[in-house]
Amino acid sequence: MSSAQNDTMSDSVGTGILVQICLYILTWNVDGHYPSVSLNDALSINSTDCPNGSHLPDIYVISFQNTQYEERTNQHSRWESKLADLLDQMGYRTICSDRMRGLLITAWAQHEHMNNLKDIETRHVRTDTGWGNKGSVSVRFNLYGVGVVFVACDFTASDENFLDRVDEFEGSIYNQRYKTRNYRDVFDHNFVFCFGDLNFRLDGEQSTIIIKSTVSKGNLKELYKSDQLKWTRGMPIKLALMREQEPDFPPTCKFVEGTTEYDLMQRPAWCDRILYYFHTKRSSKQLDLTQIAYKSHGDYILSTHKPVSAEFLLTIPLRAPSEDDITELTNEPQVLCYREHRLNECGKIRMSSAQNDTMSDSVGTGILVQICLYILTWNVDGHYPSVSLNDALSINSTDCPNGSHLPDIYVISFQNTQYEERTNQHSRWESKLADLLDQMGYRTICSDRMRGLLITAWAQHEHMNNLKDIETRHVRTDTGWGNKGSVSVRFNLYGVGVVFVACDFTASDENFLDRVDEFEGSIYNQRYKTRNYRDVFDHNFVFCFGDLNFRLDGEQSTIIIKSTVSKGNLKELYKSDQLKWTRGMPIKLALMREQEPDFPPTCKFVEGTTEYDLMQRPAWCDRILYYFHTKRSSKQLDLTQIAYKSHGDYILSTHKPVSAEFLLTIPLRAPSEDDITELTNEPQFQYWDLLLFWQQSQLNSDKTSVGGILTPRRDRFDELLLTPLGLRVTNSSIMLNNV
């Protein structure tokens, strides 16, 4: 069993042993104070009674908010040092710590668990523009083979800022991204804990006196009905997924420092919270979470907040260890089990499939593949296809630098098509494309639609075997018929990730921010199953296109815009383009690039003419954007835009079709054994076998025989891959053809 297999089967391949972990979480907004008090009671030392039979938790995770930020010469802040002095002597070891100025998170475990903590990572996200006290800091690790993440938060204060706090939570969760395979996002983890000064307040007009009176009467359930955090339960947001045991302790803020009395200048609230999420879909039946306790430590009077703690019992089935779990804990000899016939440059058995996957960019063949990509977008305004698509697809006129007069791949999106309850597989627009592209040797990669929004991808037949892990997704951003939103297609092309997101967003000049929100929501919610390419921006090449509907800023009338276009002064007009506003914004849309359009605005025309509709200001609504992920790419991987144009002769719709051509340069990687497919009955030679054959040929005479074929000696391995004697390369294998 490979490590990749073992990871995916970690819940099903078990040992029958259940591990129970007692977890203790503490949060405290210390209001800028230094640690002048004992933490024993806050950490329930000598009083914790975990069901695992111990009087101490297995793991502590602690967050302090509003600590004094010190430019320190030593490793620990004063609060960290306070914890270290206490926990070290009790046999705990630090897992990790991280901070963002005043916001601190630190995790500790009993020493016997340390060898079962893997892939430890920390991240932090700022949500304010000041000193960085507002936001979140997170710690994640694999605990006995399952993913656990802790997100410590400190959000905006004041009763009226409810929506700001929701936004801060969503932004914090979205931007906490990790490198660990299968646990890239917060909600990929089996166990999720979010805690800190979340700052949610009480709704209503109750005064501090009334709230204080309600608390003194012990009527906490009635008071809890006004809690703002409860508002989020039915909202379509990540925060609504989090669960909380209803607090049976009084509001934790705001007190007069040095007392247990509420400050009459501010209404009390449960600002300090501990939330959890148990990912049952990713978990086996034996994996479980139970909350043992949830309490406030009211005797602490150092701060205006009271510390809050929670205890949980995590039940984890102990999985069978994989090869990757082998660690050098002793000096005993270790035997590593690898599959047979894994050859490195010395011809020895050394390389596992997991290693080969991670080295796919570095172990190359020296060959570069160039792919000519053609993207077309057209809002057809509800019309059926009554016109030829040859010109829109630049058939017979495309001149790609790969030497062909036809692109290697077409990706096409139509917006506002007629939605038909169909008995056949294709809509009319898909059938129109199929009739045209089939006869030219193209094969459909995939198609998907969301009522009126359609995306379809086609490739020349010789590339089909090099297209892997094909997926489609769609995201609705309206509450109507589902025309607004996005549909995406992704696949691996010669070993690199490519994704296409076709969009149709809200219209009207004034809805700029709605369009930005729709783009961000579309990108965030397009999630895929392919390893290493879970999100849109994980891909090497990203293309977003369609009727994005961005308009022109300003008060220019249709007449003035039309006059500017007729004078050819497009650069001046482009300065007013709304899409340019996004370039400096802290959003995903700002990452996208676009060749400046040198064609007139593509909308809105009078149907059947090339004249603009005087009732609506023209704009470049139809766009094709791209993003090239250089950080994930080798130096040889490249993207070049060849063309970007509008097809103004089409008068079927109020929009003009827009197309773009790109040249993708991809280094051909060395195929792994997992890539082998039985394409023919010809004898197949795996890459590593072929490499060994080449090495042997260097030691022999001028000619070497393989499979009865005399092959000249080659000075370089890539010459062998390119030899005309019948060796051809696919991503799946290197095969010896008949000569």
UniProtKB/TrEMBL annotation:
SUPFAM superfamilies: DNase I-like (SSF56219)
GO terms, molecular function: phosphatidylinositol-4,5-bisphosphate 5-phosphatase activity
Residue ranges of domain Inositol polyphosphate-related phosphatase in the record: 19-322, 369-672
GO biological process: phosphatidylinositol dephosphorylation
Transmembrane domains' residue ranges: none
A Pfam family the protein falls into: Exo_endo_phos2
SMART domains xref list: IPPc (SM00128)
GO cellular component: cytoplasm; plasma membrane; ruffle
Gene3D superfamilies: Endonuclease/exonuclease/phosphatase
Protein name as it appears in the record: Inositol polyphosphate-related phosphatase domain-containing protein
UniProt source species: Glossina austeni
